[in-house]
Amino acid sequence: MYFVGVDIGGTGIQAGIVNNNGEILFRKECITRVNEGFETIIDDINKLVSELLSENNLDIKEIKSIGFCVPGFINKKGLVTCVNLGWKEVNFIEAIKNKFPEVSVYAENDATVAAVAEAKFGSMKNKDVAVMYTLGTGVGGGIIINERPFTGAHGVGSEIGHTIIGENYYNCNCGSNGCLETFCSATAIIKYAQKLIEEGNKSIILDMADNNIENINAKMVFDAFRENDFVAVETINRFKNYLAKAMGSMINTLDPDIISIGGGVSRASDIILNDIKDLVRKYIVYKNEEFADIVCATLGADAGIIGAAFLQ
Ligand SMILES: [Zn+2]
């Protein structure tokens, strides 16, 4: 049997046929026609998956399930809300089931899906209690217990990015102040470096950004950190300290076997992982006991397709 995983993003939709070992055998993609509305996207997904099967001489009967990775929130009733797709409580699962009545259909939030993939085939394999932080434009998260994503009694849990870990100088998109996302996302890193430069601190980051503060990205800040640039060192140390606070709180609450860091920011894994356990230890209660390994994700962008394929 094979599995189909579909990763729906704000600009593109990627589908893959995945085997039992989590290997993507065939893949196909199309653009996300956000402005054409929900029905058009459902039709496009139907066409994409049907063509992916027929082009590779596969019959729908050979597919065990179709899973979806969506950039939004799925409530207990299965209704999907994705702000950047313009979806508000749409009945996504039912719409897809109507197109593929022969197979089981599943959908989960993108951060949860990435965690499922890492737990099954990547950095968190064979661990009973695993937590993943996805550090990108925002901060997402997934908690996996015995290979199953855990989202709580009402389906609103595992929103690790909105753990409140201190006061911050700007508010989170969710309306709160002090969310992890406002300290540890790529956006947070960029904003803090910009703030220090605007306050008059000299930095090579500005040279990297062609003297336009708006051009600064997170990679520049990490690159400048390697050059011992003051602004970069301040920014990255602050980022790491708050990440350690969040992980320490997570360990105090859940005591996972492993914590994995994914998302674009994790490309600077050497800088992030260096001394992170010593930083985290400052915030945990039982300092002399063993606690979670902290690693970086290994599946990269494929985690969306692979994790979606193995939703159940
Ligand atoms: Zn928030």
Notes on the structure:
The chain is of the alpha/beta class. Helix content is 36%, strand content 22%. It is built from eleven helices and 13 strands. Strands 3-2-1-4-8 form a five-stranded mixed sheet. Strands 11-10-9-12-13 form a five-stranded mixed sheet. It has a three-stranded antiparallel sheet with strand order 5-6-7, with no helix packed on it. Strand 9 (129-135) and strand 10 form a beta hairpin. Helix 1 (38-55) packs across helix 2. The longest helix has 25 residues, at 230-254. The model has no long low-confidence stretch (mean pLDDT 96). Bound molecules: zinc ion. Zinc ion binds at residues 162, 172, 174, 176, 179, 181.
